[in-house]
Design brief:
globular, Immunoglobulin-like, seven-stranded antiparallel beta sheet, 3 domains, TIM Barrel, 19% helix
């Protein structure tokens, strides 16, 4: 087949240029041929935004799935567009960050709030160009969906949020009002016997390092402002436990547990282990860009005392693509240290690979650094399991104020990784521990 394609390229005189390869041109030729056939039979072609990679056919409608950029480009070219961007409208992503009790999904994180909160008719388009955005579409790929009830669970109530942003003018949308109406819709789901996700009603917990008070601030909230009770000693919270009245200021390692208490019954108990070490809550900077879609809480994600799980989109991991991690932690005063560790995530199907090298340097002034330990790692094999890896370096105790932590990413994916050989893998890192 490849030889036939190359022969056709030569026959048609197709050439590469700075924008498109000869193979892109051949794909465009085929799409144009198919479109003319469909048009001659009273039909129009719809194609995923890959068709923009070549000379796009004249009357094709473009499905923008690789983010928003394809739809924007197509609308500016005068093509009709159906916005269907990943991850914002891919309902095969998880609906909660706590995935241990969830049915297996492709990964990612897409709560109802993200579906409702995005503007899928970009403001950068002119009024005329916006007319080419003819609709929205959510996708649910079924390779992880063994039964129809699970499809219902993945779709509802996210489909309600999608419907409202599709049919409601932007200035009329109100997420808080949507949440007030959502219980009535869920009552209909219950009456009809649908299986649906209730995570929108879960306890919402957000953490932020508070340098002024040298603590981790934890904000706990619910969509209906129900009472939340908590404990910090690992015991099960009840209605007799302390009530969350304001931001919790956590200064020591603990196990935070919380429960929503309301007339309809208590929520699932929220549990989070918070483990502080010499790096925790300290100032940190990174010397290279974090990948914008996996920024989480920025560099502070690495020293907030919270460890990431197997979900790379949980907000607990920072991601890098084509860049290595180079982070400097200010311990604020000379401190004796003898070990540094860091976690990485491996999810090969999502191009997330382990580190190739781990190094630690120390400094008294933040300018002049000395290496105290390093370790190289072999490239991953196809048989290597997806998992969370702990990389640890121990060394003779030293006194230092500044600690530089370096992780080298997989710059070139291996030959067995079909379709992406030679491209850079993702590196996901979390929680630097210094003892």
């Amino acid at each position: 087949m490849m030889s036939k394609c190359q022969a056709r390229i030569r026959q048609l005189g197709l050439k590469s240029d700075s924008l498109h390869s000869a193979e892109d041109r051949l794909e465009s030729f085929l799409i144009d041929h198919a479109e003319k056939f469909l048009n001659s039979h009273g039909r129009r072609m719809i194609g995923w935004d890959e068709i923009l990679d070549g000379d796009v056919a004249q009357n094709v409608t473009v499905m923008s799935w690789r983010g928003m950029s394809g739809g924007i480009k197509a609308a500016k070219m005068g093509h009709d567009v159906i916005m269907s961007p990943d991850p914002l409208l891919y309902f095969d992503h998880y609906q909660t960050k706590d995935i241990k009790d969830e049915p297996l999904a492709i990964g990612g994180y897409l709560p109802v709030s993200m579906v409702y909160g995005e503007n899928l008719v970009p403001d950068e388009l002119t009024t005329q160009e916006k007319k080419h955005i003819i609709g929205l579409q959510a996708n649910l790929w079924s390779e992880y969906i063994p039964k129809f009830s699970q499809a219902e669970y993945m779709v509802m109530p996210r489909i309600a949020a999608l419907s409202e942003i599709q049919w409601t003018q932007k200035d009329k949308r109100d997420y808080n009002d949507f949440l007030k109406r959502l219980p009535h819709l869920c009552a209909i789901y219950d009456k009809e016997g649908y299986t649906y996700s209730k995570h929108v009603f879960d306890l919402d917990v957000n953490y932020k390092i508070n340098h002024a008070d040298h603590c981790l601030d934890a904000e706990l909230a619910t969509v209906d402002h129900a009472a939340v009770h908590y404990t910090l000693d690992g015991s099960e919270p009840t209605s007799s436990s302390p009530l969350v009245k304001d931001t919790l200021k956590i200064k020591d390692s603990c196990i935070l547990k919380a429960v929503v208490v309301c007339s309809s019954g208590n929520s699932k108990i929220y549990t989070q282990k918070i483990d502080f070490n010499k790096a925790s809550l300290k100032p940190i900077k990174v010397n290279q860009p974090i990948y914008k879609d996996y920024y989480a809480q920025g560099p502070e994600t690495l020293v907030d005392g919270l460890c990431g799980d197997n979900n790379y989109s949980s907000g607990r991991w920072v991601g890098f693509s084509g860049d290595d991690l180079n982070a400097v932690i200010d311990l604020l005063e000379p401190t004796e240290i003898s070990q540094v560790s860091i976690h990485t995530l491996v999810d090969k199907g999502s191009w997330v690979f382990d580190a190739r090298k781990f190094g630690v340097e120390v400094s008294d002034d933040g300018v002049n650094f000395k290496q105290v330990a390093s370790e190289d790692y072999p490239p991953m094999n196809e048989s290597d399991a997806d998992c969370i890896k702990l990389h640890k370096l121990s060394f003779t105790p030293v006194n230092a104020r500044y600690v530089r932590v370096m992780l080298e990413s997989e710059h070139s994916l291996p030959s067995w990784f079909t379709g992406a050989v030679g491209k850079a893998g993702f590196l996901f890192a979390d929680e630097i521990t210094i003892i």
